[in-house]
Specification:
- The chain is an alpha/beta fold.
- It contains 9 helices and 8 strands.
- Strand 1, helix 1 and strand 2 form a beta-alpha-beta unit.
- Helix 1 packs parallel to helix 2, helix 5 packs parallel to helix 7 and helix 8 runs antiparallel to helix 9.
- The chain starts with a strand and ends in a 10-residue tail after the last strand.
- The model has no long low-confidence stretch (mean pLDDT 84).
């Protein structure tokens, strides 16, 4: 069983050497073949030079440099694209995740699970700005998706390779990979893992990400319920809107015939026109979404990131499957 450790890096210069030492201290003892893929997400603090030096000293460390900052999700997707292991283990590069948890994750994989998700039960972050919003988000994601996990935001996870073979990540979608896996029938387990305070550098997370996560959650909900049949979703909304328009128009007509109320003295005709137009637009939007869905399923997807260079990676990666 070959392991691929996937680590997005953005301005973590001072954490890279301690991270390398911690990983080797665990992986060498574990005795399994492994590779560590470090993805430089457009760092500007000198991380690129340190990463290249690490790759030069140990070919098991593979480096991918982005031309600019594309975000954690894109960096994780690039690491997945370049990974060759049977088990893929993403983790943060800030030393808050502990490599000593990797053997415990693998034990769960060997028990037959397809996904093992880390749970930072004793999280070492600021309570108000990090922990509280995370608890609310985790509850909301679990409720909407139907996949109950305590800590969707924990980067330390383990996946069988097949689980990620057809996954394409965008936006802030990296935290929702267990949901994608559940859709494919994967067996998911959760494991309490260690979490350490950050020693070097600054956190890249903040309250500003909450809005993006919630919007991506809406996308997840749509994909879960209507991605392969968008006309049903938009058509239903359109039909309800047209029905509302019909009732409003009928009401206005009844007031005109029974009470002699002029159309201009009641908002009902305006509401009827508004809902009728909205209904038609929703149905047309559903038709367009249906065509786009068919194009998506019938054509090859294109990657959404560009590479500057790679280290210790041979050959060209093929198009996404």
């Amino acid at each position: 069983m070959k392991l691929s450790i996937l680590v997005p890096i953005y301005n973590e210069k001072d954490n890279l050497e301690p991270l390398r030492a911690a990983l080797l201290g665990t992986l060498d003892i574990l005795g399994k073949p492994f590779e560590v893929i470090l993805v430089n997400d457009g760092s500007i603090d000198g991380s690129a030079e340190v990463m290249d030096a690490i790759a030069a000293s140990d070919v098991r460390f593979k480096i991918v440099h982005f031309k600019r900052n594309f975000g954690q999700t894109a960096a994780l997707m690039a690491a997945i694209d370049h990974a060759t292991g049977d088990v893929l283990i993403p983790m943060d590069g800030d030393l808050q995740n502990d490599p000593q948890d990797i053997p415990r994750l693998l034990e769960r994989i060997e028990q037959g699970y397809d996904v093992v998700s880390g749970w930072r039960k004793d999280r070492q972050d600021q309570a108000l700005s990090r922990i509280l919003p995370s608890k609310i988000a985790n509850w909301l994601i679990s409720w909407i998706s139907g996949v109950p996990l305590h800590d969707y935001g924990c980067s330390l996870k383990a996946y069988r390779r097949g689980v990620l073979s057809n996954v394409h990540l965008y936006g802030e979608m990296h935290r929702f990979v267990p949901i994608y896996a559940a859709w494919e029938g994967a067996r998911i387990s959760e494991l309490v893992v260690m979490h350490h305070p950050r020693k070097f550098g600054t956190s890249k997370y903040g309250l500003g990400r909450i809005n993006r996560v919630l919007l991506d959650l809406l996308v997840i909900r749509f994909m879960q319920k209507a991605f392969d049949r968008p006309i049903h979703f938009f058509g239903t909304v359109g039909t309800i809107s047209l029905g509302t328009a019909f009732l409003a128009g009928l009401w206005a007509l009844g007031l005109k015939l029974i009470e002699g109320t002029s159309f201009v003295s009641t908002p009902l005709p305006l509401l009827a026109a508004f809902f009728a137009l909205s209904g038609v637009l929703f149905i047309l939007l559903g038709l367009i979404a249906e065509l786009q869905m068919r194009v998506y399923f019938e054509s090859q997807a294109k990657r959404f990131y560009t590479l500057r260079a790679t280290r210790n990676i041979t050959g060209e990666i093929g198009p996404p499957s």
